[in-house]
Amino acid sequence: MAEFALAGGATCGTADVVAEQAAAAQGNPYVTDGFSCSATAEGPVSRWSLAWGGTYYAYSCADGSLEVAFDWGTDYTYAG
After folding, report:
1. Half-sphere exposure of 52 (CA within 13 A, CB side)
2. pLDDT attached to residue 14
3. How far, in Å, CA of 54 to CA of 18, rounded?
4. What strands, in cross-sheet order, belong to the sheet with 35-42?
5. Which of 3, 17, 37, 67 is the most exposed place for a label (fewest CB within 10 A)?
6. Burial of 18 per CB tally in 10 Å (0-12, 13-18, 19+)
7. This model's pTM is above 0.90
8. How far apart are CA 58 and CA 32, in angstroms?
9. Other beta carbons less than 10 A from residue 44's beta carbon
10. What is the pLDDT of residues 33-77, one digit of tens each?
11. Contact predicate 44/54, CB 8 Å
């Protein structure tokens, strides 16, 4: 994972717990710790495509007013 966005009082600890399930979900929606997460497949035309070697997913997760967004994939190639 490369980038996170938090809103509504979500913390880095919350983001860790929520994002931990993304590897098992493999781009599919999931629910964890009260958060419902959905994913959008991203690829070569996306803003961040140079950081990824293939398809990756932009996840958006919410539990009421708490929000966590992040990207996840298996081929992170960004080297700086």
Report:
1. 21
2. 95
3. 23
4. 4-7, 66-73, 56-63, 35-42, 30-32
5. 3
6. buried
7. no
8. 17
9. 9
10. 999 999 998 877 777 666 677 778 999 999 999 999 998 887 777
11. no
C-alpha–C-alpha distance, residues 78 and 23, integer Å: 19
Q: How far is 41 from 58, CA to CA, in rounded Å?
A: 7
On whether the CB atoms of residues 33 and 17 are closer than 8 A, the answer is yes
Residue 32 is inside which H or E element, if any? strand 30-32
Calculate the alpha carbon distances from 41 to 35, 44, 54, 70, 79 in Å: 19, 11, 10, 12, 22
- Residue (of 16, 1, 3, 18) closest to 75 by Cα position: 1
Residues in the chain: 80
DSSP class of residue 49 equals G
